[in-house]
Amino acid sequence: MIYEKMSQATKTMKSSMIRELVASTKNIEGLISFAGGFPSPKTFPREILSKLYHDVVLNEGETILQYGGSQGDSLLATELLKWEGYDDLSTDQILITAGATNAIFYMCAALLEPGDVILCEAPSFLGSLVGFEAMGAELHAIPLDQEGLDMDALGTKVEKLKKAGKRIKFIYTIPDFHNPTGVTMSLQRRKKLIEFALAMEIPILEDNPYAQLRYSGESLPSLFRVAHDEYSNTEIVTEVVTFSKILGPGMRLGYVKGSKVLIERMCSWQQKVNIAPDNVSQRVAARFLIEGHMQPHLESIRSFYQPYLEKMLKCMADYLPSYIQYSKPEGGIFTWLWLPEDMSADLLFEQAKAHKVTFIPGSKFYPVGQEKFNCLRLNFSYSSLEQIDQGMQSLGKLMEDFYT
Amino acid sequence: MIYEKMSQATKTMKSSMIRELVASTKNIEGLISFAGGFPSPKTFPREILSKLYHDVVLNEGETILQYGGSQGDSLLATELLKWEGYDDLSTDQILITAGATNAIFYMCAALLEPGDVILCEAPSFLGSLVGFEAMGAELHAIPLDQEGLDMDALGTKVEKLKKAGKRIKFIYTIPDFHNPTGVTMSLQRRKKLIEFALAMEIPILEDNPYAQLRYSGESLPSLFRVAHDEYSNTEIVTEVVTFSKILGPGMRLGYVKGSKVLIERMCSWQQKVNIAPDNVSQRVAARFLIEGHMQPHLESIRSFYQPYLEKMLKCMADYLPSYIQYSKPEGGIFTWLWLPEDMSADLLFEQAKAHKVTFIPGSKFYPVGQEKFNCLRLNFSYSSLEQIDQGMQSLGKLMEDFYT
Prior knowledge:
2 copies of one chain form a homodimer. By secondary structure, chain A is α/β, with parallel strands linked by helices. Chain A folds into 2 domains: 2-45 and 296-401, Aspartate Aminotransferase, domain 1 (Alpha-Beta Complex), CATH 3.90.1150.10; 47-290, Aspartate Aminotransferase, domain 2 (3-Layer(aba) Sandwich), CATH 3.40.640. Chain A has helices at 2-5, 8-12, 17-23, 46-64, 74-84, 100-111, 126-134, 151-163, 187-200, 223-231, 260-273, 279-290, 294-319, 345-354, 385-401, and strands at residues 32-33, 94-97, 117-122, 138-145, 148-149, 168-173, 204-207, 237-242, 254-257, 325-326, 334-338, 357-358, 360-361, 375-379. In chain A, the strands form 3 sheets. In chain A, strands 2-9-8-7-6-3-4-5 form an 8-stranded mixed beta sheet, sandwiched between helices. In chain A, strand 7 (204-207), helix 10 (223-231) and strand 8 form a beta-alpha-beta unit. In chain A, helix 4 (46-64) packs across helix 12, helix 6 (100-111) runs parallel beside helix 7 and helix 6 packs across helix 11. The longest helix of chain A is centred in the C-terminal third of the chain and has 26 residues, at 294-319. The mean pLDDT of chain A is 95.
């Protein structure tokens, strides 16, 4: 009986197909996995966190175990603005949320009517795409090049959609160590994108989980930072940051910065959806910042991941056939392979599974009906250095054998 | 610019007016407050929790700080079913959520299309009402009597709505120590309600935050329990329980039991909204149960609150004019006053504020346009015994003076 009562959106809602793919390889003994997107549990600062959790609950429990404000812990908000170096922003331009996905959900809840358009990168983070679709958005994918969003394609698409009378609600982008491709948007491109967005009055949703995970090269300012510093604008970009790749995703902690009016409405949704984020993990994160653990911890994470990225880059150079192209990121946790037009990564996935190697076929990262099949994502933060070597050797061999 | 992009629901969304009311009394020195709905921070088991947080993060951090499943911690789910004594339910009939409000939100997300009807008690919990309205539901209020929902009024209303071609999605009820009235639904009424719901095929959403807070008298089975035990049905009632009044609302932890198909779809929404509840607080709660802390802790909470309820009952009997009627709960944290028809609690609120006493006028607990003004809610879990005496004395005096 209850199924018949469900809303149409709920009846047709999709789950992340990646989950099912990963589940299909779960019981393979000795599997080498490049599939996941999880941070390494070895990077979680368990000892510091366990002490902070203890002290916060024991000493501040009377207030911290109580209901907290929907806008989040004001101590944490203040510390975050300080840490990021925004002296001129007030805490009503930041909202603490139960992770980045939660912040993205509130952005959608605040803006979307069914049929509204979201422009996203192609490929993009599947978790966001299925969320957008569940909220009734129409997704239009804009191709990426080595510098990020293809601005010509974006311009053409926007013109077409406007002519068709569509309401474009925002552009969704992951400018740093993009998931799934590993590509980082160039500074030049960031400026162009902001100028375009300002001219067209299309907000940008910047998803920024990986910027802190840079192992070489020079950091680039976030889109929010560029808009703030160079265009004196804190409305055109809404930036979402998560602690999931820094402290641990199990804490469900993220935050979002944007215009006051938007943050206030997102907060109003938070009141109805979660009342407030977890107070305990919020205060633990605040103490982590106040006690000065963040900088040394970030340095230790970077040193931890760097050899894995280097190993992956070397293995791609050594083992992949010369006609395979790939991204060469300086951080994050993913690389991306472009295969020849006629090589299906979905087919390759099945062959690799039989050889105890797994990855995510690129087609999973596109909106339905806009898929490309000759591409795949490799994660390098989960397997050991030896496994990366062995797995990439197998994968290179499988690709060489693909045409025979 | 961003405001113009917002969805209609977001533009017109209301916040809880109680928040603003409480804020309006924030700076009154020496204020005696019967307004809040917060548990006493003295009931939070800080010492046990601080130790559990420490141990969970230190010893289980590699898995607990990692991403967890959207259905929640299976260890906690298993322990909860064991604790509640449901041997025959499987963990796919329970979903852990970020508090009760979060579970109620997923229920709405799973079922509601704009314009669908929710039947609620009048009065009812404002937090849920504003959530229902934000999700586009049309609220219809059913009066309460001393045994709970008025079944005749419910029958008439359902008939009328069905004739008008309305889709009724569920009945929202708080059967134990109801917020705001403190009324507990009788066993007889529980059975009648379930039989009615089964006959009419209208699901029941049972919000059950207070059942464990019984200080005298005999416990009644939840609606879910009655449907399970006496009608062999686990679909007609969806029961939401929270840890907020037991361990501490800052942990944001609740759970919901219901039919597999509904729980599965609510889980799918959880994946899109929060990915998963906080893993750390989930595992801490699981350890709290496993180590046997729950039973003694509940007993200590009950002994803690009992004198406050007794004091409030005595003060109402001693100080209120004889023409004021009130509920006489055996638990929970609220009592409710029915005033003479021509006595406005909103007016009384302003007078009481001037005399440094505060409460919530009853009108705030009704859907917009269906308000009653001659009623008010008193909380007895926040003020000291002396404050209860003093505040109730002032309130009684104000009521006596109301007509002079």
